[in-house]
From TrEMBL:
UniProt organism field: Sphingobacterium alimentarium
Xref: InterPro entries: P-loop_NTPase (IPR027417), PDDEXK-like_dom_sf (IPR011604), PDDEXK_AddAB-type (IPR038726)
Domain PD-(D/E)XK endonuclease-like: 658-936
Name of this chain's protein: PD-(D/E)XK nuclease superfamily protein
Residue ranges of the TM segments: none
Coiled coil regions in record: none
Length: 961
């Protein structure tokens, strides 16, 4: 079956012959022009005098020689005029920030009123009256309010709120503002399309521009505004115009079908005649298939489309194909999912999804943050984003240096004075603005630098060049407006810039007659394709459930014949239904997943077709494949070759020391011991937005050392009451320690970040609890050793390959003290502070002295006690663990689930057992026949950077007895 434009071409030949030079053909958009030219060439088969082609706006623009004014210039005109009116009324002028939110709505309403030839004074007077009634009589029922509106002239009751009064005054002011705005345009010999439409329809502009044309053909028009309807009917009556309507009897003749609303109005109300005569009933007579695909997610539609295109052998097809985006946000995922084939894109690639916008948006975000702060700091994520953006071209060395600096100092917020970028093409990216007038010049400089950088590397892509040029144009227009306003805040300028550049896009042009055509539904007007693939056919998207912002309520819009939401539905229905007239392959895709942005339902247009038409819907539900990762072998590191040679050279010949932490690391995961202590693969520097317990522990250890240091080595016992006197000093000591750890220059707690203040508060409570516990449980104390990680090293003989070898172990002694209990008993203790999830309770010693030990803290404390006793000769040390969250209820002495306390004879026995366990574990570490492998029963923290190496660990099956 011939397409709509092919029918138009045939009719043109029959009517006008070969000389079309004095014929004007007008479309709603540019896209169909190329297609009609092709159909004319095919229809005539020889050279002809070509008609002249226009879009409707280009055609109407022939009537005026005034300059088309940009939307931004219109906005600044409106702002200037509005403040002049306020001054005449005796009111203070509004700032640009105050006026901007309503300016766009005012301009949009003015445009719509022009297009539909609405009397400005009448509609705003009625808006004023109805609004005043609504305000005055909010307590009345709707029926009562309607009655009072009939007699409004007799009523006037005061009591409006400030904001209501402001809008009432605005409604009265808008007709005056409208006329001043039009005068302003005329004074500068400028105009806009809404003004041209109204002036043409009202006879204020001459229609003589149509004289050179024998006939004007309006092709494919659907929803006409009142100005178009009036002019079209006038030209038809003059014998000047012909109209080609693309319609189908299925929805045109059925008044219940919303898709035919506008064409019915054009033909039966306006009286326009269809040059193609009676429309056929194509849709009603079709019974072939429509393929409906339910995808498992929004983006999944594009992945599913890829498979459908391959299945339909699109690469070898001689038929025409079009992908129509009901949801235009799917453009980028679509481009990433298409098979390698020719494409032509009409919708345009949006600036907001390009790396260029990423740079501009980041700059605006950074300067929004620092423009109003006393301390110029930004989140570390913004620096990371800058370093990782390929357009900044920061050298890998400088990038690593800055990332390491941030991670080492755990800088959640970075002072911009500490950000030194030398190698980037944007070295001054984080420099504060000297003045609010520098916003646009700085952004323009960034654009220029990016453009020059792209041009140096390779030939700049056309799409990038277009985006950069269009963005520069918008910035220039904004600068012209900003120059007329004395003082604008940086925040407002950035907000307006972001809004102004968001709509920018660049067409990705190809051959409109070859390959896959990609466009929105609106761009597909007049066009027909053998196969159409429509993405985003979801309820809420097709049709949309929202309309543009307006001050004109729906009741007024309906009364004055202005577009309402139902009109938007009718247009969407028409744009969808017309593809059912000619396309033989119809493929519809929708997101079947219910989430915050999707109902999970197909459009009601599909439901209507299922119920009313004879189409056969073939439904397919996308199956989410269950992906099983490829089976990989467990990572096991044998102690052979270089591994064994290195271990021997490091620990036996080189006498490197093994710590308690290294021992418990091996117990939990021998493979992690290998990474950390043999291969020496260090954890990468990183900064965490979560609370760091390790750093909290460092702060607590160092502050406790500072508090107890004066008492170390004293011969006499000190009353524990002195510890209570230290509590008031805690805040200052913690503040100084946090400042040291984070390399801060701070004098008070308010200088800390939110996480640092949390750390300060927790550390204060922990330290206070430690001091209060000692003061309440003991009479006096002596400090024997304190925070010593240097002096406690011993050489331990173990069996390696049948020979006695020696390895060094060492202990970090947090605190060794003697305390006098309330009963007068003297106890010698070794104390370890813990801030994590450690506990003094254990189930049984068999589970402690075992691989994947159930109580790391007990193993480590016995390790420290053993090393200290061997080194000093002091015996009978009791292991104590200070866990602030539990010490009041459970004490500090380790105890078993059956009540056994780690003291006296039981402690002595466990110390002997520990030595055997320690030696056997060390011998296992240095046993060449036992490889390093992960214990799959071990608990691994999410933040463990070695997790990737554990994922294939296999649990060994227990031997059956």
């Amino acid at each position: 079956m011939n397409s709509f434009l092919a029918l138009v071409a045939q009719d043109i030949k029959q009517r006008f012959g070969s000389n079309l030079s004095d014929i004007a053909i007008v479309f709603n958009n540019k896209r169909p022009i190329t297609y009609l030219k092709k159909h004319l060439a095919d229809t005539y088969g020889h050279a002809i005098w070509s008609p002249q082609f226009y879009t409707i706006q280009e055609f109407f623009a022939l009537s005026s020689d005034a300059e088309q004014v940009s939307p931004l210039t219109q906005f600044f005109y409106l702002y200037e005029l509005h403040n002049e009116l306020l001054a005449q009324e005796g009111h203070k002028p509004e700032t640009l920030e105050e006026f901007y939110p309503i300016a766009e709505i005012i301009l949009s309403d003015f445009s719509q009123l022009d297009y539909d030839l609405v009397n400005i004074d009448h509609i705003y007077m009625e808006l004023y009256d109805t609004s005043k009634i609504d305000i005055e009589f909010q307590h009345l029922t709707k029926e009562q309010q309607d009655f009072i509106k009939q007699f409004w002239q007799s009523f006037s009751i005061s009591g409006h709120t400030g904001i209501q009064e402001r809008f009432l005054k605005l409604w009265k002011r808008l007709p005056v503002l409208y006329r001043l705005f039009k005068q302003k345009l005329a004074a500068h010999n400028q105009t806009n399309f809404p003004t041209i439409y109204r002036q043409l329809a009202n006879g204020e502009l001459s229609t003589a521009f149509t004289a050179p044309f024998k006939q004007i053909l309006f092709v494919g028009f659907n929803a006409l505004n009142n100005a178009e309807a009036k002019l079209f009917k006038q030209w038809q009556d003059e014998g000047k115009a012909l109209f080609y309507f693309d319609a189908d009897a299925y929805y045109l003749e059925d008044t219940q079908q919303e898709a035919g609303l506008f064409i019915r109005r054009n033909i039966f109300q306006t009286g326009l005649q269809n040059a193609l005569g009676d429309v056929p009933n194509i849709i009603g007579n079709r019974s072939d298939a429509i393929h409906l695909y339910a995808s498992t997610g929004k983006v999944s539609q594009t992945k599913l489309l890829h498979d459908v295109l391959i299945k339909n052998n699109i690469l070898c097809s001689c038929k025409s194909h079009a992908i129509l985006l009901a949801d235009e946000s799917l453009l980028v995922p679509l481009l990433q999912s298409l098979p390698d084939t020719k494409v032509n894109i009409t919708t345009g690639f949006p600036l907001t999804q390009s790396p260029i916008f990423g740079i501009l948006d980041l700059w605006m975000k950074v300067h929004e943050q620092i423009s109003h702060l006393r301390k110029k700091k930004i989140p570390f994520q913004d620096v990371e984003t800058f370093l990782n953006n390929p357009l900044t071209k920061t050298s890998s060395q400088e990038k690593t240096e800055l990332q390491t600096f941030i991670a080492q100092k755990q800088l959640f917020d970075i002072d911009i004075q500490d950000i030194h970028i030398r190698t980037s093409v944007l070295p001054h990216f984080f420099r504060p603005l000297a003045s609010s007038k520098d916003v646009i010049p700085t952004l323009a400089h960034i654009l220029q630098n990016v453009l020059e950088s792209l041009a140096q590397d390779t030939q700049i892509k056309q799409i990038d060049a277009n985006l950069l040029i269009e963005t520069q144009k918008v910035l220039n227009q904004l600068q012209l407006g900003f120059d007329k306003i004395p003082q604008l805040s940086i925040l407002f300028q950035i907000g307006l810039i972001r809004k102004a550049i968001a709509p920018i896009n660049s067409a990705i042009e190809g051959d409109p007659l070859d390959g896959i055509q990609i466009m929105g539904l609106l761009e597909s007007r007049c066009l027909n394709f053998d196969n159409v693939y429509i993405l985003g056919v979801n309820e809420g998207i097709l049709p949309k459930i929202s309309s543009a912002a307006t001050f004109l309520p729906n009741t007024l819009r309906r009364a004055y014949g202005l577009p309402i939401l139902e009109n938007q539905d009718a247009l969407s229905a028409y744009l969808f239904y017309r593809h059912l007239q000619y396309s033989t392959g119809i493929h519809l895709f929708y997101n079947s997943i219910v989430d915050e942005s999707s109902t999970g339902e197909e459009s009601r247009f599909i439901r209507q077709l299922e119920f009313e038409s004879n189409f056969n819907f073939l439904k397919q539900q996308q199956q989410q494949p269950i992906l099983f990762p490829p089976k990989e072998e467990e990572l096991i590191v044998p102690k052979t070759g270089k591994v064994w040679d290195y271990m021997r050279a490091k620990y036996i010949d080189g006498q490197a020391k093994i710590s308690a932490t290294a021992l418990t690391t091996y117990l939990q995961s021998p493979l992690q011991f290998f990474f950390k202590h043999v291969a020496e693969i260090k954890e990468p520097p990183r900064i965490s937005q979560e609370f760091e317990m390790n750093l909290l522990g460092t702060v607590i250890h160092n502050v406790m050392e500072e508090i107890l240091k004066p008492y170390k080595g004293l011969e006499d016992f000190t009353p524990t009451s002195v510890l209570l006197d230290k509590i008031p000093e805690i805040d200052g000591l913690i503040l100084a320690e946090i400042a040291e750890q984070y390399s801060l220059d701070c004098k008070e707690i308010n200088d800390l970040s939110s996480l640092q203040r949390i750390m300060h508060k927790i550390a204060r409570e922990y330290l206070k609890m430690y001091l209060e516990y000692d003061a309440s449980n003991f009479q006096s104390f002596r400090i024997i050793e304190l925070e010593n990680d240097q002096d406690y090293v011993i050489s331990l003989p173990i069996q390696i390959n049948g020979q006695v070898e020696h390895v060094n172990i060492y202990g970090i002694i947090d605190r060794v003290d003697q305390v006098v209990t309330d009963l007068g008993e003297i106890k010698t203790r070794i104390v370890d502070y813990k801030t994590g999830a450690d506990a003094v309770k254990f189930t049984s010693m068999d589970k402690v002295f075992a691989a994947n030990t159930e109580n790391k803290a007990l193993v480590q404390t016995l390790f420290y006690a053993f090393v200290f006793e061997q080194k000093t000769g002091i015996r009978n040390l009791e292991p104590n663990l200070y866990v602030a969250r539990k010490m009041r209820e459970e004490g500090t002495l380790f105890y078993g689930s059956r009540g056994a306390l780690m003291e006296g004879d039981f402690l002595a026995q466990q110390k002997e057992e520990f030595v055997g366990f320690l030696i056997s574990t060390l011998e296992e570490i240095f046993n060449p026949d036992i490889p390093f492998k992960h214990n799959p029963d071990a608990h691994i923290y999410e933040s463990d950077p070695y997790t990737l190496f554990y994922r294939n660990a296999i649990k060994e099956e227990e031997e059956s007895e």
